[in-house]
Amino acid sequence: MNTVHAKDIEVKKLDTSEILRYMRAGMSPDAQVVLAAERGGKLVLGASGCRACYTKVLVERIDEAHLKLGQITVCSNDLLRHLEGCFEAFVIGVSAGVGVDRIIRSSRVESELLSLACDAAGSTLVEEACDQLEEFLSEEIKALGRTAVGRFSPGYGDFSLEYQKHITKLLNTSKNIGASLTGGVMMAPSKTVTAIIGIK
Questions:
Q1: Which residues, 6+ apart, have CB-to-CB distance to 193 below 8 Å?
Q2: Does residue 88 surpass a pLDDT of 70?
Q3: Which of 61, 131, 179, 197 fits 95 for a cystine, CB–CB 3.0-4.6 Å?
Q4: What does the pLDDT read at residue 185?
């Protein structure tokens, strides 16, 4: 059985331009939108509790459309291409925490704009946390004389969101990062990401 490691991740600052990008604010957002983005970033940072978990698995190509990630059999041409030359990979899960979802919900009472900004800030936060974990794992991979292949998440290309079910079970995300699947294949807390990082 694969060992799953868990760690806290501290994000100290959010890039307002990234929050505005998630808000789809355009190239020249007005002052009110920028202020909402800045405030949303501060509220989300104050409520964040980023936590990550990861495990290393073997990568085995089965045929032109299928591969195995440890015990998970995946049908995805896009993931196959992404992991070409990789015989191992890290499976990761990262969550911004339940506090971020609470802030997004409560901010709706004040305005839809602030709620939009908080939602965008939550997306920015979890991506920054993923970047930090990826950098941490890349250093570990580099120390082995190998190269990391950037993360690839369920929902990208033909890598179905259905595989969230297998990944959350493999990582025991409910225990390790306090994240689980809803009735469908979406994560709760909503600002939670799972992904594969190849080792070449």
A1: 92, 93, 94, 95, 126, 127, 130, 153, 187
A2: yes
A3: 179
A4: 87
